[in-house]
Amino acid sequence: EFRMRLLRERCEGKDVLDLCCGSGSFLIDLLGRAKSIMGLDFSRQMIEVAASRLRSANSFGVVGFVEGDARSLPFADASFDVVFSLASLYHVPDVQQAIAETARVLRPGGVAILDLGNSRSLATLTGAMSHRFYGWAKSYAIPYDDILDAISKAGLAIEQHHSFQILPLFGPRLVQLLLPFSASLFKYPLGLMVHGRLLDCIISGTPLLRRFAFRHLFVLRKAKHG
Predict the structure, then answer these.
(1) Most buried one in 3, 21, 62, 101, CB count within 10 A?
(2) Can you tell me whether residue 71 is helix, strand or coil?
(3) pTM
């Protein structure tokens, strides 16, 4: 998968922070690659699950976990070479503060790999309906322009920007009935590969439609000098 290839390339031999690590699914593949790994999550239960998974993988001495808030990281300035967060930050209120904290704990020249959500998207609409009708997790995605503004204010430069999910990935049946474009019939073609790239990625990455795609995966660089 593209995201894992990106992590392997960027985390090799580095001190790494997985921000909002959840069950640790993105950490397993970094064992033996990263110099050290720290996982942070607000949920003690998720941390326990992640720690158990990594113990099963016989990883000792290079992995640690801490319970904490992505908006107020319990780490000193310039603690990590790489900070990444995938499929998580659109569930964090005040994500602009989480981006600023990411920049703070990065070392000069360090890299952040952040998966951010755009509130002006169809996926946000279906997510809001799913939250209301079924109690699914609430989205705190922000507008696309606010994402770019937060990155700039944090002092991070964009090295790569990949857009995905022009249509919602999923939704309960009631949501699909009310919003037919969330049904699989419309989404299947977006999963097709065209010249080695997902059609969804190609469409979502066009200048106009990028502003309406839900997921935006950024590779960001902190300046080497302040």
Answers:
(1) 21
(2) coil
(3) 0.89
